[in-house]
């Protein structure tokens, strides 16, 4: 038996490859199918089944393209309905993969079709449970994403409690829990950075197994941040046949000359993304470009701040990173990339086109400016939970997640100094607000650097 977790840090997402005696399965594949085809080839296996634990909200999964490429059967849990060919599994149904068995355990709560898959080895012994967004390491899935008029968030939380306590808790302690996500995903509140654990340890350490039902429901629905706007769009995409991945990548990696790029950039319905490093963007970029760098959680932040999933996008990338940009956009359903600036910013600058440099200050300069009054409008753009944990006394809090609402509070006549935790998110905020005519200054190193400065009369509230 071969079991491999394929973990994608940008999305904090785990897909799984399992093979035995020349047959293989994939659980929760990402949109690009070649890595799974390569794994199957390396292990001399044919992919027989593609299992989805549920219709994901935070990425577009690759079951349709993978089934087309391999002839494998897509397996969805009870209650699932999709616009492509699939096998609707029954609770308790068992699938044979070589000498292994995969049993479907219906675990509604995160969504009503959510299912876990129990792996039994060649001797019939339970080895692993692939839990999707039902059970994370240290947490459980949020219960609000599938709430409808006939099914409240509280109803879903109640279903999740029953699934955890009646379907998962009775399983043997030694089995390994493999979730669909880890820390950094918006599908839960307090996930661990660990990507697997024994069920026995989770029973001891995960709050979800310790609370009574009403307390569990209260805990689960309290403090839930609003989900990113692209989540419902990704759910819908995961229920239908979409443009195939290769077509999206081919279009998205179209090289555009400076004149072609400029012509598109001037169109109101086209967004310019600069995906380079923080320092490269700050040094020189287009005045209207939004910064979302590949070095951070690129795809989730695209989904959080680019409101229209059908947005036409052209981008600036480091040489050799063009395909990666198009791929990572497509992972969250942004399929309308039109191409990239051929030759990058060097080509743009070489022909004398307009560039803008981002104003920046060091953390010490920022603190000194607050102390002497030369900086009058500081802004903290971290998440609500981060701000609540610790922040500068008197600072304005405008979370990046809500930029299209809270940026309306900004005055074009003022200059704002912006920080996040480390300098990545603040630059996203600065770039978007600047494209709207607001004078912005980025604080290098963010709150982490601020805490290391000589604070003077600046007070940190914890």
UniProtKB/TrEMBL annotation:
InterPro entries: Metallo-B-lactamas (IPR001279), Mito_Persulfide_Diox (IPR051682), POD-like_MBL-fold (IPR044528), Rhodanese-like_dom (IPR001763), Rhodanese-like_dom_sf (IPR036873), RibonucZ/Hydroxyglut_hydro (IPR036866). PROSITE patterns: RHODANESE_3. Pfam families: Lactamase_B, Rhodanese. Keywords: Metal-binding. Residues 266-357, 379-459 form the Rhodanese domain. Signal peptide: none annotated. The keyword Phosphoprotein does not apply. This is Rhodanese-like domain-containing protein. It comes from Dokdonia ponticola.
């Amino acid at each position: 038996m071969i079991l491999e977790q394929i973990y994608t840090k940008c999305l904090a997402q785990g897909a799984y490859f399992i093979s035995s005696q020349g047959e293989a399965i994939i659980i929760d594949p990402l949109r690009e199918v070649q890595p799974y085809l390569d794994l199957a080839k390396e292990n001399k296996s044919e992919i027989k089944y593609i299992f989805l634990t549920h219709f994901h909200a935070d990425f577009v999964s690759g079951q349709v393209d993978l089934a087309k490429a391999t002839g494998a059967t897509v397996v969805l849990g009870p209650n699932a309905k999709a616009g492509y060919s699939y096998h609707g599994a029954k609770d308790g149904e068992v699938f044979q993969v070589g000498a292994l068995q995969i049993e479907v355990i219906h675990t509604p709560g995160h969504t009503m079709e959510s299912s876990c898959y129990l792996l039994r080895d060649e001797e019939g012994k339970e080895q692993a449970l692939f839990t999707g967004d039902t059970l994370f390491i240290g947490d459980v899935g949020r219960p609000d994403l599938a709430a409808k008029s006939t099914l409240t968030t509280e109803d879903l939380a109640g279903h999740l409690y029953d699934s955890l306590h009646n379907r998962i808790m009775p399983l043997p302690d030694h089995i390994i829990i493999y979730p669909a996500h880890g820390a950094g995903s918006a599908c839960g509140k307090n996930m661990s950075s660990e990507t697997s654990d024994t069920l026995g340890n989770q029973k001891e350490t995960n709050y979800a197994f310790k609370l009574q039902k009403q307390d569990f429901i209260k805990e689960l629905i309290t403090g839930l941040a609003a989900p990113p706007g692209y989540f419902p769009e990704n759910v819908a995409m995961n229920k239908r046949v979409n443009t195939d991945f290769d077509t999206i990548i081919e279009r998205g990696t179209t090289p555009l000359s400076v004149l072609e790029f400029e012509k598109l950039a001037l169109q109101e319905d086209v967004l310019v993304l600069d995906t380079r490093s923080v320092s490269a963007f700050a040094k020189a970029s287009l005045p209207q470009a939004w910064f979302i760098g590949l070095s951070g959680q690129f795809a989730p932040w695209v989904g959080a701040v680019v409101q229209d999933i059908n947005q036409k996008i052209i981008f600036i990338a480091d040489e050799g990173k063009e395909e990666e940009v198009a791929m990572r956009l497509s992972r969250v359903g942004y399929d309308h990339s039109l191409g990239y600036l051929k030759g990058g910013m060097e080509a743009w600058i070489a022909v004398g086109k307009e560039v803008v440099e981002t104003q920046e200050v060091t953390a010490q300069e920022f603190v000194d400016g607050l102390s002497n009054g030369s900086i009058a409008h500081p802004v903290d753009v971290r998440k609500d939970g981060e701000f609540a944990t610790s922040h500068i006394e008197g600072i304005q809090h405008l979370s990046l997640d809500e930029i299209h609402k809270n940026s309306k509070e900004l005055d074009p006549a003022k200059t704002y100094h912006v920080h996040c935790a480390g300098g990545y998110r603040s630059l996203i905020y600065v770039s978007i607000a600047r494209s709207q005519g607001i004078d912005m200054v980025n604080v290098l190193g963010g709150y982490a650097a601020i805490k290391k400065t000589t604070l003077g009369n600046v007070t940190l509230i914890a």
